[in-house]
Specification:
The protein is α+β, with helices and mostly antiparallel strands. The chain has twelve helices and six strands.
Length: 358
């Protein structure tokens, strides 16, 4: 016990008790602080240059546009699926109403037979509220007489038709939910990439940001003034469109110069790239598919050397961007969220193909 108490009371040796140990510790801590950035340096890497920001932002916009086209396609499928589902449900309701009328007619007949004491066992089975039992005994019901057996057979077919409709509706609902899940995935992808692009652009000064996005003057009203000036100069030397529909589509695109880019939008005041093209031809009475992937197959393919105003011009290997050709090597397109609908040379992006709406 005495030894234990003595050991407990013995003075503890401080780990930095010697001058040499203290010096080593100070050096070690100083080095650690430097590595950790405690001296005010080394906490973050150098800021990216405007050129690096532009490269990264352009990549993010392309990736976001690819996801936007997938979103647009999934939305188109979801909308169509919802219409089909509603149609199936409406048809099932109509068939059920007809079935109820037919069953009521059979019930009236059976009641009359019952009152006369002549109701047959087959009718009791046929009028059961249990459809499965009814279908199993339909053969017996056919003994109730030619006229009544035809009516029973019709009710049986109506029940089978209703069950097929309900089965189709269940499958359509499953497909709809799959498309809705895809919508949510693509929306998350788009918003994430656009948010990163905004963050990168926000780190630049206004002049740098203008040079990166191609919008040097960010003063209010500049976009609309620039659009008006561009429209006037282009219309003065415009190449004539080959037909009235192409001319109407080009005129619509001219009228939308300066409109904002909004992913998933199809007008009338904002657009994404395929939404602008679709709206332009819709104004000419032509229905185009929603996505770039489908639009490129919506007409006759034409080589670049034979482009005419109104042709759809596509870009990048994934065919993720589209514009409306207006002649003289230029197009009107909705570029990305950093720039409004505007005129650009088709050489600005990797050319992927062109289609003429016929």
């Amino acid at each position: 016990m005495t030894a234990q108490v003595a050991a407990h009371r013995r003075p503890r040796q401080h780990p930095f008790g010697s001058h040499t140990a203290r010096t080593a510790a100070i050096v070690a801590l100083t080095g650690a602080a430097t590595v950790a950035g405690f001296d005010g340096t080394g906490q973050a890497g150098p800021r990216p240059t405007p050129a690096q920001v532009r490269t990264r932002v352009d990549t993010l916009y392309r990736e976001a546009e690819t996801a936007t086209q997938k979103y647009d396609g999934a939305k188109e499928e979801a909308d169509a699926g919802e219409r089909r589902l509603n149609s199936l449900r409406d048809e099932a309701a109509r068939r059920t109403q007809k079935l109820d009328s037919a069953r009521n007619a059979l019930g009236s007949f059976a009641a009359a037979q019952y009152r006369s004491g002549a109701i047959a066992p087959a009718w009791q089975l046929a009028l059961s509220s249990d459809p499965d039992r009814y279908l199993e005994t339909a053969a017996l019901a056919e003994r109730a007489g030619d006229r009544q057996s035809v009516a029973v057979s019709q009710v049986r077919r109506q029940l089978q038709d209703i069950e097929r409709l309900r089965g189709a509706a269940r499958m359509e609902l499953k497909s709809l939910r799959s498309h809705q899940a895809e919508l949510r995935r693509q929306k998350k992808t788009v918003t994430g990439k656009l948010a990163e692009a905004r963050r990168l652009l926000a780190e630049l000064t206004p002049p740098q940001r203008g040079r990166v996005t191609g919008t040097d003057d960010t003063s209010p009203g500049h976009a609309s003034r620039a659009a008006d000036d561009t429209r006037q100069s282009l219309e003065a030397g415009a190449v004539a469109a080959p037909d009235s529909r192409a001319a109407a589509a080009v005129a619509y695109a001219y009228a939308k110069l300066g409109s904002p880019y909004v992913w998933g939008a199809t007008g009338p005041d904002a657009f994404d790239c395929s939404g602008l093209v679709q709206a332009a031809y819709r104004s000419a009475g032509v229905s185009l598919p929603r996505t770039t992937y489908a639009q490129i197959d919506a007409g006759q393919r034409v080589p670049r050397s034979e482009l005419r105003p109104g042709d759809l011009v596509f870009f990048y290997s994934g065919v993720s961007h589209v514009g409306l050709y207006i002649g003289n090597g230029r197009m009107i397109h909705a570029p990305n969220p950093s720039a409004p609908v505007r005129v650009a040379p088709i050489d600005q992006m990797p050319f992927a193909g062109a289609t003429r709406v016929v």
